[in-house]
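Record diguanylate cyclase, 428 aa.
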Amino acid sequence: MSVTPAVETDKDEFRTMHTELNTFSLALALVLVTLGMTLVLIMAAWHSGSEKGLRHWALGNLALTMGLVLNISQGLLHHSISQILAAGLMALGLGVIWLGVRAFKGSSQPQAGPIFAAVLVMLLLAYFHYIQDSAIARQASIGICLGVLALLSARELLVPARPPLRRAYWFTGGIMLLSGFGLLARAALGAEQTLISATEINLERSLQHATLLGVMVAQIGMAGGFILMTHYRTMLALQQLSEHDPLTGTLNRRSMHDRAQAVLEGAMHEELPATLVMVDADHFKRINDEFGHQTGDAVLCHLVTRIRQHMRSNDLLGRFGGEEFVLLLPGLDAGDAQEVAERIRTAICSHAEPISDQAVVLSVSLGVASTDIYGHDYTALVAAADSALYRAKAMGRNRVEVSTEPCDELRDNMALRLLSQFRHNLDV
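=>
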């Protein structure tokens, strides 16, 4: 029994309508999902305070969502106008997202870049609509422009970074990389299919749907990646606050203990020496009383700056308490560390520039203790360096003292502490 041509035509029209309906329903669902992700970014940006990048990403995702909505509701405007505006909004959105990535990393943000990209893609589409009508040229223009913008963001993100931020960088950058190559491949595929296809309208429609779905899925992944990046950045900031002294930026006492002990254990495993230096600002109470606590804070920051000028990359510096700092020098014995301590003392006491606009006379006393005598135990080294520091205070300040044998220190420790305390009370 044969089927009439009219019936076959009705079936083809039904299949076409069914396919378009499914595509429209899926696109609408994805738009709603991406709109929800955009709202999440907007809320996060609203409460982010000074967090850089989030507001760019929220605005970029909003522009992308508006472009996607125009793509699936082209009946509201003329088809060509809707497509031109949609492409311009998506280009603007990806450009603003690129600016957000650069802002997140602390790089410059050329504000004219996204606007130029949006205007360029709209001019190209207008030309290939109204002057030289070519669906393939329009699709190639959209794919190349959006693909290049996505690859620019991927280039900013696929770089070495500190864990765990690196995972968020590479996750988001990988999505941007796949999106960029996918958009460029789509443009190339459209140009290739013109050689073998005679139905340009169907090709334009199918490529447009593929682009729509691909961009929306990528948008969901990008929004999740941006949230991860912000989350990990906040984690690192909290870790920085918990491990460092807020005034001087050095390690705080607890963090210095943990890191120094780990370094000492590594040095012991490799059979290397290490030396600990205790640094104390002389007459710091007098400085606070004479110039005020703000000047005292500036003195501590100046002291840390001077110490860091004589540190290597693997040395550790922490604030022990008040005006006392601990410096760990792995790989150096007592003799080499004494030379470093002497250079630090000379650099601090010979400074001529004013501190916080005040002519502050500053000097330090330093105590040195090495693993050659006290072993690779942080607590023992601190106690020995502290005893040597008391000796430097008792012998007139502004000097470096190296810790002696434990038996000698036990014999002289009480007398030196009493003398140091007496001189401190007299503030001489």
